[in-house]
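Note to self: user wants both folds in one dump. Writing first protein now.
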Amino acid sequence: MIVEIISIGTELILGDLIDTNAAYIAQKITASGFNIHYMTTVGDNRDRMVDTLARAIKRSELIITTGGLGPTDDDLTREAIAESTGCPLQEESELLQHLVNYFKQRNYQMTANNRKQVLLPEGARIIKNQLGTAPGILLEKKDYTIIAMPGVPGEMQAMLTTEVIPYLKKYSKDLIKSRVLKFFMIGESTLETQLKDILERQTNPTMALLAGRGEVKLRITAKASSAQKADLLLDRAEETIRERTAQYIYSNNDQDLAEVVGQLLEKKGLTLALAESCTGGLLGNRITDIPGSSAYFSGGLVTYSNQSKIEQLGVQVLTLEKHGAVSRESVAEMAEGVRNKMSSDLGLSVSGIAGPGGGNAEKPVGLIFIALADREKTVTYRHKLHRDRIWNKWMSSQYALYYLYQYLTKI
């Protein structure tokens, strides 16, 4: 079945709102065993909406719309569906009574424009809206089906999961499951080259490379008659990929690196303390974004100035004078200092030049150093980043977490 999602709203076209509805619908519909071929966005213009629906009717069998079902003049989805399908709008007495009761129970005055919400295209059925006044629309025709849902995310999500997905199950005997492998320290083009023959012969499961934030994702999608059979297909595909690229994979369920690291710290019963300079607390923020991180995170210090490094971490004045704050020597003392101060098993530190200023020929913008200290040794790492300040800070935190991940997987 060819599925098309149409998002309706001028606020989406102008960029005033991000279209989270289409992504949510796509995830749920795909997981239910359907193939989405098209996603379209159209503003609140009746002629363009009719044209968009007419094109969808010609090429798709299931058309799902979101938005434009409210009571105001720019809510035109009902009218557009009626015109594009040749099914005139009719007032539904059941809907009208429901709407009257809705306002009466809340002691609200029902304005005249709300009455348009009780209009349905001829032959259409109501999709219940448990959270709002605008019902959804289900119109089944010989060659296609149109499902229209509200644009309010909460209303749409509830309607989709409780009403629409159960209805659609009769059209699909299969289910679709996906698994996302996450890679670090390898670029998208290099990964594609290493997996080129696998990607070219894919059928079921299918695979798609996705660029992440300083990392690469590979989504594996399997279609099967049961979850068990889908998992078997996913397992086989993942095993084939790992035979070539296992050293770059840190997750197979789309987890953030900070979450993976946190699980390893908790599993191994280790505690972590952080000393941050150029990241300004970003590393600690990522760690503490994970629920339950207090089980393994002792705390962190943002020592931005040289003086704070000396006073808070015990970095030697001579070290800073001889090597500077952005150096292997300084980050090593930072990691050791915070580990001792917090009485933690591990100390992780980062210092660098985030930019855009502050660099020179010897230490250019984007240069970062990372150190990881345990009770026996301290290891340092050097990287040169090449983008703007925000990116350099993010990637500094990502490299720091990755080196911690590598350490934890080897002990």
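First done. Writing the second protein, which came from a different request thread.
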Amino acid sequence: MKLTLVVACALIDADNRVLVTQRPEGKALAGLWEFPGGKLEAGERPEMALIRELQEELGIEVQEPCLAPLTFASHGYDGFHLLMPLYICRRWEGLPRPAEGQAMKWVRPGRLRDLAMPPADLPLIPPLIDLLGP
């Protein structure tokens, strides 16, 4: 089975809310809410991929020292297995704006379970609640 490595980030604001974005129409799992991030390109380290993805998706600048690994998800989908480290980030430059037309919102960690999310994202929620509170 093919192993796919993607990186995700929980951007955390001053009120301990987490930013989530909605997968746009035309993509797999369209309409589901997820943490921003994406696939690594050839030869790319996870942190560099996340910095690139946050710039592309949200128009923000993140420095590598501001990314802290929190946990990871390992989930089998039809045809591939997804391995997804989740980083947290409390500092960035710029105002997050959906650069790819996706919806976005800030959510309290305890309310993440109320959102329709991809199965691989669900195990990432408890560590965020442990860290930030409900």
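Dump finished. Worth passing along: The chain has one domain: 2-132.
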